[in-house]
Design brief:
- Two copies of one chain form a homodimer.
- Chain A is α/β, with parallel strands linked by helices.
- Helix content of chain A is 47%, strand content 16%.
- The first copy, chain A, folds into two domains: 2-122, Nonspecific Lipid-transfer Protein, Chain A (2-Layer Sandwich); 129-411, 3-Layer(aba) Sandwich (Rossmann fold).
- The longest helix of chain A is centred in the last third of the chain and has 20 residues, at 366-385.
- In chain A, helix 2 (21-33) runs parallel beside helix 3 and helix 5 packs across helix 18 (366-385).
- In chain A, helix 11 (221-233) links the parallel strand 6 (213-218) and strand 7.
- Chain A has helices at residues 2-14, 21-33, 65-73, 75-84, 94-107, 113-122, 129-140, 144-148, 169-183, 201-210, 221-233, 263-266, 271-281, 303-309, 318-321, 339-355, 357-363, 366-385; strands at 39-42, 48-49, 58-62, 88-91, 191-195, 213-218, 240-244, 254-260, 282-294, 330-337, 389-397.
- The first copy, chain A, is elongated, with a radius of gyration of 23 Å.
- Chain A has a seven-stranded mixed β-sheet with strand order 7-6-5-8-9-11-10. A four-stranded mixed β-sheet of chain A has the order 2-1-3-4, with helices on both faces.
- Strand 10 (330-337) of chain A pairs antiparallel with strand 10 of chain B.
């Protein structure tokens, strides 16, 4: 792993020209945007900047002048681009660097006007059905073998719930599935629609442990193939149907509607469409739960993540999430913020990823390996710092009677 | 109680003229707006309408033609006006009538265009400071002796929390105060700002049981006098300061901000002002909790309630509540809907009110007695049916670290 970085570093040294006053100015510009972050730069000729401050905790090594220029012009996007390409390295912890940057950016009101313009340009335009399919294939059809290397045994690729902070990732994913079922007050025989079912773990869990009859929708073909095979071998095919389809294609009548980790891909312009679907299929006494990455601040995703990891992704505020509920007179019953649990989940994922990084190398090229390391590390930092939040929103139809009297039942063993 | 109704009824009979086709048409118009409600009308000459349906569960007795006309033109406002004035009576349960009406109005998409216009005209215009004072005096300075007749011992005039549905009102109000303190993770020495403290029960509870240092703000002079006297006799004056002031006047620095049952009086145009106050006074690690009546649907209060009970009142949706949090980058940690607990609270209040109605009669005139009966009965119906909701919103600054790991701690004994 370090080997490749050294190679890039050596290449940088070879094509180096002495850094000068202009480069120092670009570094100062960059540091201004990250003021308060214990950060230094090492340029291609070995120059360390800033000269004046205490020793930085993290050094960003920039291997050529063009990369420095790109970084200065659009750090949000280019940090990821350059890091993936090996034109930039980090001497120190990527996670700690991310946390420090997010901490500063969340408390500071100073934002680069250039960054604001770029954010606006990058703002996702909403996901029509065909575009959704392309976006989802981009991320989820990389191959089950890749995800198997670092997810839990059941391939649950969403925030776990660590009822006890010390529990294993496997246990915390089961704990999350139970938590969702308890919030939904799931009963034997309940008909459930799941929108965006991933590799099917939750759908199968609901059928096996709660006696639910589940129709689970997904547009990722490789995930669906995996989920159907699991249902078959586990003898649950009569109780769980995996349907290739977008949330817009959900038909029928259901006692519960659940979606864990799909709203991020829906795009805010389509929240109302999603609400309309739920309104169409939910029984009068039905319950719904939406679990989604969110934000405290209405802003587009990081442009690098949006470009390479989650095309079309958007992380809404609670206010924005209401766009799918309020027009259809759904009543909000419970909103919970689980961002700390996502930081913990991602720490497990990153640790497993690094344990298996040689296998990832055998499957993909170096930029892919680096991109995923950055994505996992940056996400830990984002959830830890609060730049990203994780909301579970429980709702039902206004006036429907059968809500739990208190939430204490969720926490009873 | 029945005596006065009979008198009104007799007066109606005296000034009756035979009801005719026009009156029947008005009744049909009214019944159209309440289609599905098991409702009948008894007119001043004894005519019962509708003729064709099964025996209604509730009869509305209209004592004169002018009242029928007023009711048909603006039922939302005039039902309360006419009932209070004794020009209309209900043979059957006011609560059940209310529930049935709300059930229909929440599920029906048919609304009288006239009603919509009237709602718009009645929309509250936001509460400047002087207006706030007048509105609050209207309701809360009626006199402590009146509220003492039917509230709990500590005069808590907000939704209780029935951890156990069978607990007494006194216990449920204490349970609510503990619930709020637990959600806020209140610790000894914490400085708390309370906006809109009523008769001071929560402020005193926080100081006595959680070791908090509380500054509690209120603009109702009679409530403040009561609260200060309690602090003095209970030896808590050094730990609780009751300040005559609007939420806009809160200064200082606090580890927690709490407001229970005030947002309803703030008016949506001022949510941002309230958020600005919280942003100004809350420490970086501070927590906030807003407890407010709300709604699933963005709409003004019932015009009769707004005119006579809560001038300037407004019950926001979750989306609307976010206007006080999102602009200041507060992170939503927890939203809970406690509407069923408010219905239960109001049932206790109404039962006590009726037990002490002779004492109310000795203090106030008949229209007042009837108005409060209608208000309490209608509110039970509104919370029971979901026309009104009760939201507790817990928040902190985005990225602040010291949030409970799970909510299970709130429910541990």
């Amino acid at each position: 792993m370090r080997g490749d970085q050294s190679t890039a570093w050596e290449q940088g040294r070879k094509r180096r020209s002495r850094s000068g006053a202009l480069d120092a100015m670009l570094v100062r510009l960059l540091l201004k945007g990250f003021s308060g972050v214990p950060l230094g730069f090492v340029l291609w000729d070995g120059t360390r900047l800033p000269l004046e401050t205490a020793r930085p905790v993290v050094w960003i090594q920039v291997h050529d002048r063009q990369s420095l220029l790109k970084l200065a012009l659009n750090p949000d996007l280019q940090f990821g681009e350059l890091y993936s390409a090996g034109r930039l390295d980090v001497d120190g912890s990527l996670v700690e660097l991310g946390k420090a940057i997010y901490r500063v950016s969340l408390t500071s009101t100073v934002r680069s006007p250039l960054a604001a313009v770029l954010r606006f340009v990058n703002r996702p335009s909403g996901n029509a059905e065909q575009q959704s399919r392309e976006n989802i294939h981009h991320h989820y059809d990389i191959g089950n073998d890749f995800y198997r290397l670092w997810l839990d045994r059941q391939l649950v690729y969403t925030c776990a719930y660590f009822a006890d902070p010390a529990m294993t990732l496997e246990a915390a994913q089961v704990s999350k599935m139970d938590y969702v079922c308890r919030k939904l007050d799931l009963r034997p025989g309940d008909r459930v629609a799941e929108a965006g079912c991933g590799w099917g773990a939750l759908a199968l869990h609901m059928a096996r442990h709660y006696g639910a009859q589940v129709r689970a929708f997904n547009i990722s073909t490789s995930q669906l193939a995996y989920a159907r095979e699991r249902a078959r071998t586990e003898g649950l095919s009569d109780r769980v149907e995996f349907v290739e389809g977008d949330y817009r294609e959900i038909e029928g009548e259901y006692d519960a509607f659940v979606s864990v980790g799909m709203l991020e891909h829906v795009g805010p312009r389509h929240y109302r469409d999603l609400g309309r679907v739920v309104d169409r299929v939910l029984t009068p006494a039905g319950r719904g739960l939406i679990h989604s990455i969110g934000s405290s601040i209405s802003a587009p995703m990081n442009p690098w993540i949006e470009r390479h990891i989650f095309p079309g992704g958007y992380t809404p505020t609670v206010r924005e999430m209401m766009e799918m509920l309020e027009p259809f007179h759904f009543a909000v019953l419970d909103v919970e913020n689980l961002r700390q649990h996502y930081a913990r989940t991602l720490e497990h994922w990153l640790a497993r990823y690094e344990q298996h990084v040689d296998e990832v190398h055998a499957m993909f090229d170096e930029p892919f390996v680096r991109a995923w390391r950055l994505y996992l590390s940056g996400s830990i930092a984002a959830f830890h710092s609060g730049a990203l939040q994780l909301f579970q929103v429980l709702f039902n139809r206004t006036g429907a009677g059968d809500v739990a009297w208190t939430r204490a039942v969720i926490y009873r063993d």
